[in-house]
TrEMBL record:
SMART domains: PKS_ER. One of its GO terms (molecular function) is oxidoreductase activity. Residues 10-303 form the Enoyl reductase (ER) domain. This is NADP-dependent oxidoreductase. Transmembrane segments: none annotated. CDD domains: MDR_like_2. It holds the Pfam family ADH_N.
C-alpha cells in the first residue's frame, strides 16, 4: 500500500511517499480503507522528536491519528462493525508506527465509531482528535447552561468545535481570535475578543464578574486565565502543564468511542459542524504539515487518501 513515512525525526522534509506492507488484522481489530486523514499539531511534534521522552516509535513511521474511511475487513472476534461500513476514529496506538496517512490502517475496534451521515469524508476526518479534545475538556470542566466560558484559541480546529459544544450545552461563550475571524466566530455562537496585549481587560469588559470556565487550547495564557476567572471558577489546558500548580487541569485526549458517538450525534442533529481550512492529496502531506506548523489556519487541515 502507499503511505507517507519518515525514517528519522526531523522537519516535513523527512516525509516520503513509500510502499509499505499491508497492516495485519488481529483479534479485536478492524482494517479501514482510508478516505481522508487530518493533520494535528501533535503529528509534527511527534515527527520532530518532541514527544520522544514519552512515546515509543518504530521507524519507518506512518504519521497520523485521525481517520475517516470504510471497513475493509474485520479480525477475529470483532463483531461491532461489518465490511463496507463508514467509520471514523482517533486512532492513537501504544507506540508510533502504523498511522493513518496511508491507504489502509488497522485499528482496535474499541476506538471506532460510525461516520455521521451528514459529514463528507474530509469533514469526518477532522472531527475525532479535535472533537474529542473539546468534548472531554468541557465535560471534565462540567460546562453547562449556567456558565460563561472563555475559550483561548477559538478559531483553531479544537476551539471551533469547543465553541459549538459549549453553545449546545447552553453556555455563554467568549472566544479569542484574530479580528479576521470574529465574524465567523459570531456565526457559531461565540462572542469574539482579540488576543494579544490587553486581552485581560477585553475579557473583563465582556464579563465584568469574571468567567466561570476557561478552556485553553493554545498555551501561554495562564496569567490572563487566572486574572479573569471568577471565584470558584474552573480551568483546564491542553498546552500548558503549569495549570496544575495553579488549580487547573492539564489534559490529554483519550480515544473513547462513546464520546466520539456523542459527537456524531451532535453533528447529525445539526448542532456541530467541522470547518475544513484546506485539503491536500496524500503525496503533498509534507505541505499539509508545513501549513499546520504555521499555526494560522481556521479549522482543520486534511489529507485526501482515496
Amino acid at each position: 500500500m502507499k503511505a507517507i513515512t519518515y525514517a528519522q525525526y526531523g522537519s516535513p522534509d523527512v516525509l516520503e511517499l513509500t510502499e509499505q506492507p499491508m497492516p495485519k488484522v488481529g483479534p479485536g481489530m478492524v482494517l479501514v480503507r482510508v478516505k481522508a486523514a487530518a493533520v494535528n499539531p501533535v503529528d509534527w511534534k511527534v515527527m520532530a522528536g518532541y514527544l520522544d521522552p514519552m512515546m515509543d516509535i518504530q521507524f519507518p513511521a506512518i504519521p497520523g491519528w485521525d481517520v475517516a474511511g470504510v471497513v475493509e475487513s474485520v479480525g477475529l472476534d470483532s463483531p461491532e462493525f461489518t465490511v463496507g461500513e463508514e467509520v471514523l476514529a482517533y486512532g492513537r496506538k501504544d507506540f508510533v508506527q502504523g498511522g493513518t496517512f496511508a491507504e489502509f490502517v488497522a485499528l482496535p475496534e474499541r476506538v471506532l465509531a460510525r461516520k455521521p451521515t451528514s459529514l463528507g469524508w474530509e469533514q469526518a476526518a477532522g472531527l475525532p482528535l479535535a472533537g474529542l479534545t473539546a468534548y472531554q475538556v468541557l465535560t471534565r470542566l462540567g460546562v453547562g447552561a449556567a456558565d460563561t466560558v472563555l475559550i483561548h484559541g477559538g478559531a483553531g480546529g479544537v476551539g471551533l468545535l469547543a465553541i459549538q459544544i459549549a453553545v449546545a450545552r447552553g453556555a455563554r461563550v467568549i472566544a479569542t481570535a484574530s479580528e479576521t475571524n470574529h465574524a465567523f466566530l459570531r456565526s457559531v455562537g461565540a462572542e469574539p475578543v482579540s488576543y494579544g496585549a490587553g486581552l485581560t481587560g477585553r475579557v473583563l469588559a465582556a464579563a465584568p464578574g469574571g468567567v466561570d470556565v476557561v478552556a485553553d487550547f493554545v498555551g501561554g495564557v495562564l496569567e490572563t486565565t487566572l486574572a479573569v476567572l471568577a471565584p470558584g471558577g474552573r480551568h483546564a489546558s491542553i498546552a500548558d502543564g503549569t495549570v496544575e500548580q495553579n488549580g487547573g487541569t492539564w489534559m490529554w485526549v483519550s480515544p473513547v468511542a462513546a464520546d466520539l458517538r456523542a459527537l456524531a450525534d451532535l453533528v447529525d442533529a445539526g448542532t456541530l459542524t467541522v470547518e475544513v481550512a484546506r485539503s491536500f492529496p496524500l503525496e503533498e502531506a509534507a505541505d499539509a504539515f508545513r501549513l499546520s506548523m504555521e499555526g494560522h489556519t481556521r479549522g482543520k487541515i486534511v489529507v485526501r487518501v482515496s
